[in-house]
Amino acid sequence: xxxxxxxxxxxxxxxxxxxxxxxxxxxxxxxxxxxxxxxxxxxxxxxxxxxxxxxxxxxxxxxxxxxxxxxxxxxxxxxxxxxxxxxxxxxxxxxxxxxxxxxxxxxxxxxxxxxxxxxxxxxxxxxxxxxxxxxxxxxxxxxxxxxxxxxxxxxxxxxxxxxxxxxxxxxxxxxxxxxxxxxxxxxxxxxxxxxxxxxxxxxxxxxxxxxxxxxxxxxxxxxxxxxxxxxxxxxxxxxxxxxxxxxxxxxxxxxxxxxxxxxxxxxxxxxxxxxxxxxxxxxxxxxxxxxxxxxxxxxxxxxxxxxxxxxxxxxxxxxxxxxxxxxxxxxxxxxxxxxxxxxxxxxxxxxxxxxxxxxxxxxxxxxxxxxxxxxxxxxxxxxxxxxxxxxxxxxxxxxxxxxxxxxxxxxxxxxxxxxxxxxxxxxxxxxxxxxxxxxxxxxxxxxxxxxxxxx
Length: 455
Fold this sequence. Notes:
CATH architecture of the largest domain: 2-Layer Sandwich
Number of helices: 20
CATH superfamily of the largest domain: Bira Bifunctional Protein, Domain 2
Radius of gyration: 28 Å
Low-confidence stretches: none
Number of domains: 2
Number of strands: 16
């Protein structure tokens, strides 16, 4: 008995219905990227492990999918490596390549490798799958897509403004209400400095980043376990308790951390971004959030996170400013800023809110019924003309019973069916049936095209 086929854990098959929705998201995002002058690139699914290792921390290294060398992959190993199970040494001997973990490190490698052929500032987008050997669970997969957009080679804060405009435009087109949260790494450094504990920046920011999840008291409790004295925590309280408009928060931050060089610079950058956005027609809500602390391993300036306003789910888009991404490959002091759209979470939000346009769900607008060889050949000519006019149409391939062809249209959600028999071929007026209402009318080809184009 043949073994039942399956796919690896943490991966998924996508049905046509799911794919047309996913492609709608990808196409919408890509269209916005292009309207703002960003160009596409692609990088290989696999990179040299020397490119990937050490870029994501110890945990990231463990989650890299390694690819065995071709042929006799054990030929470079020593018996003692196998006997002692020296995994680190073994890996370097049997594997030289790995699947990409994200799009950011390959992008940095791409910029350095192609620097002489690029025009800076370099504006790129990339929509490709990535792989992580993570434990599969709800909402977390081993294979998933990232939609990244970055501009590198410019320090201007107008780039942050542009990215927020792009975020706003993407979610406006997808009919999603979102909240765009902003912070700045320098503000977080200023907070740690005011608390007289700059060496504990990571512990402080990791704790306050959990504010929404665990509440204020738990944040203070975690800080105590990290060795922060009570008087230091007291200095944090007025900063954590900030509320009001963006302007009010900026004014308060100036008073609270403006005495520190880093803090003052961070507040100044946030003020410029929000002040500039106020002059523009931004639909999304833009909020300063001094507790936002994602990506501290590489972000050096602005930190951006986007959440759906109507669905309780994690971040659906995020990013920030980085000042030395290409430095890991020997090209220092090149600043950039970028964001990544989480297509899978965006899909879940849109599905829950049922905001996919109806036409997206209909791959075919019109089915032509096949009554036999003569009628089918005639219908084929009509089909060609319809498709040339941009109508998504298909001819049923077999001269099957009408009931079967109608059921096919119904199951595929095709809204219109066109029937062409002897009488219709003579009069050149064809029977068009609306599958939703049951209404049927005889129309000429041009009338049919006009009707369908309005749908």
